[in-house]
Write a structure and sequence with these properties.
The chain is α+β, with helices and mostly antiparallel strands. The protein folds into 2 domains: 2-166, Bifunctional nuclease domain, CATH 3.10.690; 174-264, Pdz3 Domain (Roll), CATH 2.30.42.10. The chain contains 8 helices and 14 strands. The strands form 2 sheets. A 7-stranded mixed β-sheet has the order 3-2-1-7-4-5-6. It is globular. The two termini are 29 Å apart.
């Protein structure tokens, strides 16, 4: 079954890249779609089903969408920057898109129908936008690898507001918000980086305005808007709470110095040239 699934993914991508015939129609108008940032993977506590958390930057909502365990694992691997020895399904799909001279521009989640999420991929092939059908979970796993934009229908966001969720164990949680990816620092990481013995989350990657402001991997974020952050989910909650102001102040330690920067809470832009290298 796994082999058949991989084959179907590859065939769908090949057909979608090579022809625009029978392009996937959206369930809503394109202008109605809302930008979102892939923040983390969590668990719905009653069933134990994994969910992906999307941050909606206009009002700070953190919205869960149900996904399968394989897709949850694929997203976590991408957020942690883990490169498998052999390409997994979503790594192979991303490599295939790039090798065919296309880029994944957008991942769209446009409908929740009869309890099932529906979505699409928008590929750019020589300036032509090609839209093909996709399971949202697969699309989001690809977005985590390629930096593609994520657009979600308002009805999907509203449906997710009542879904409860909890983070993984503190040492497993990984969170991305405003272009900053953080994890809980283990004792080994603290020793290797010489981090101070203070609560905080370690930065594993930055991009766009966070990177331009001087925040780098290896920094220890201690406070967001004057509030201590003791774990990755607390970091996400503080960024979410700052959304109404549109800006947030981050206090961090890096290479022996404590610094503070102010960043926008919008979703950071991605340089298209970096899209397939993220």
């Amino acid at each position: 079954m796994q082999h058949l699934f991989r084959l179907s993914v590859l065939l769908t991508l090949i057909i979608g890249v090579c022809t625009a015939a029978d392009a996937r129609e959206l369930a809503v108008e394109f202008d109605e779609l809302v930008p979102a940032e892939l923040a983390s993977v969590a668990i719905e506590p009653i069933s134990g089903t994994p969910v992906v958390l999307l941050r909606e930057p206009e009002d700070g909502r953190i919205v869960p969408i149900f996904i399968g365990p394989n897709e949850a694992r694929a997203i976590l691997m991408a957020q942690r920057g883990i490169d498998p020895e052999r390409p997994m399904t979503h790594d192979l799909a991303a490599n295939l898109i790039e090798s065919l001279g296309a880029t994944l521009e957008r991942v769209i989640v446009d409908e929740l129908r009869n309890g099932t999420y529906h979505g699409a991929l928008e590929l750019n092939k020589d300036g032509e936008i090609i839209r093909i059908d996709s399971r949202p979970s697969d699309g989001l796993a690809l977005a985590a690898r390629t930096g593609a934009s994520i657009l979600v229908a308002p009805a999907v966001l509203e449906a997710g507001e009542d879904i409860p969720f909890r983070g993984l164990d503190d040492d497993e949680d990984v969170v991305t918000a405003i272009g900053i990816t953080v994890m809980a620092p283990t004792e080994e990481i603290r020793q290797a980086l010489g981090l101070p013995d203070e609560p905080g989350v370690v930065v594993t990657g930055t991009r766009a305005h966070a990177e331009q402001a001087g925040l780098r991997a290896g920094a220890l974020i201690m406070e967001v808007d004057g509030e201590a952050v003791s774990n990755p989910m607390a970091f996400l909650e503080r960024i979410s709470a700052a959304t109404a102001e549109g800006m947030t102040k981050i206090r961090f330690w890096h290479e022996g110095e404590k610094q503070e920067i102010e960043l926008s809470t919008r979703i950071p832009d991605i340089d298209p040239e970096r899209r397939q290298r993220l």
